[in-house]
Amino acid sequence: PVLVESVLVLAVALAVHAAVWDRFSWCALALALQAFYVQFKWDQLLQLGRAVFRFRGAANSGLLPASMVMPLLGVVMKERCRAAGVVYFERLGVVVASTGMLLALFLSVLAVGITKPVPTNTCVLTGVAGSVIIYTMKHSLTVSEVIEVLEVLLIFVYLSMILLYLLPRCFTPGEALLVLGGVSFVLNQLIKRSLNVVEGRGDPIDFFLLVAVVGVILLGLFFTVLFLFMDSGTWISSMFFHMMTAVLGLGVIMPWLYRLIHRNPLFWLLQFLFQTQTRLYLLVYWTFLAASACGVVFYQNTKRSSESKKHQASTITRKYFHFIVVATYVPGLIYDRQLLYVAAVLCLAVFLFLEYVRYFRIKPFGQTLRHLLSLFLDERDSGPLILTHIYLLLGMSLPVWLFPRSCAPKGTLPGAGALAPYSGVLAVGVGDTIASVFGSTMGEIKWPGTKKTFEGTMTAIFAQIIAVALILIFDSSVNLNSSYAWILASVSLVSLLEAYTTQIDNLLLPLYLQIMLMA
Hints:
Layout: H1 2-20, H2 23-48, H3 63-84, H4 87-114, H5 120-140, H6 143-166, H7 173-195, H8 204-226, H9 235-261, H10 265-273, H11 277-303, H12 315-335, H13 337-359, H14 366-373, H15 388-402, H16 423-442, H17 454-474, H18 484-500, H19 505-518
Helix pairs in contact: 1-2, 1-3, 1-18, 2-3, 2-4, 2-5, 3-4, 3-7, 3-19, 4-5, 4-6, 4-7, 6-7, 7-8, 8-9, 8-13, 11-12, 12-13, 12-15, 12-16, 13-14, 13-15, 15-16, 15-19, 16-17, 16-18, 16-19, 17-18, 18-19
Organism: Regulus satrapa (Golden-crowned kinglet)
InterPro entries: Polypren_kinase
Protein name: dolichol kinase
């Protein structure tokens, strides 16, 4: 399975290289080759228990698929924005690609350094790939961009040491690279933009995303360190938790956002949410869907008898939430993507806050949340945090957040790129859901070395093609310009990756589909 997963990732890298064909796409290929060799060293370290931290079990290291996400995303973003003539975001794409390559090289050097005996061939390959990448960065980045890349690397190193120590078994090395690398980049972007505020420049919803993500992460870090020294399950600790959340929210996060958007954040948010009648209808509809999701949780828990405490929700039951998020995101993508952007940020902040309440057993709802959510745990929730629902939200939202709006004339990209914001809906909402439901109920022919079935994968590809046809009917802004073969190839590659990867597919698949569609 690891070899097939690697071949699929290399196929995506080659497809992007064929579409772009510049120095950074060559560097991405060099990175992919060295990551292919280094991931076996990581797998060996995980099996022998010699890794620096305790990573999630029942999965391989995932270094190759995770290493390629940021570099390839930066390469396709750079190319799209260069074609649109938007220099600022073209340079941002260069920085994203360079940052992703440097973070991946850091993890590779770490694995090579702690492997005994030292793997000579892998060291040589890593050195050659690193030399090519650093040489390219030297001749492509300005001094300020080099400093920015190094700042992200520094943040990533410190953030990894803190979070991987405090949260054992929550990530594989690849997932840590993807999640913590993304958080490090967002934090650095927020610091950079806060120090260079120009009134009237920048979209408020982008600032809202940066401040919300960084604010909630810092809130979690603060309480994680604090509750090392005190019991979080008492009423005094719970009152302190709620009080400090209000203080940090109103005293730090709100002023920080005010500095960036130059208006009262609460008034701006209320005005934005209720600006048009369409937004009001969407908010009412989404509230109904949120209540339905809560109803599913309560109903499934009422079915759990006291004699079957170890009973877990079935795969089909968990896929109810996939159907709900598809019903949530599709109207937002068609009618108001900016509202969907902001609503997804708010939902992420709420999800993370509720996870803090559950994890720290904050009264009065902490223990109740532990009981309710324990029914939906699977083998990927082996650490102290429950992250699968947060990964589902991120998988649906990242294509919307990462879509280069400034580089898209009339709000959409030409050809297959017009489907890029729908990557989460297609890969996770439709493909992964249909593959799981049909594979678990009717699948008989298993892919070699996996539990996934041939029937599930083929049904997922067919369902995504039907979904693309429906998007063409209902979303008039989508114009594929006869790029149907590329779309079919993209959907097929990502569906095969879903069958063979052991990483969090809710997070990985939408990003790879977005990369392919934007290429």
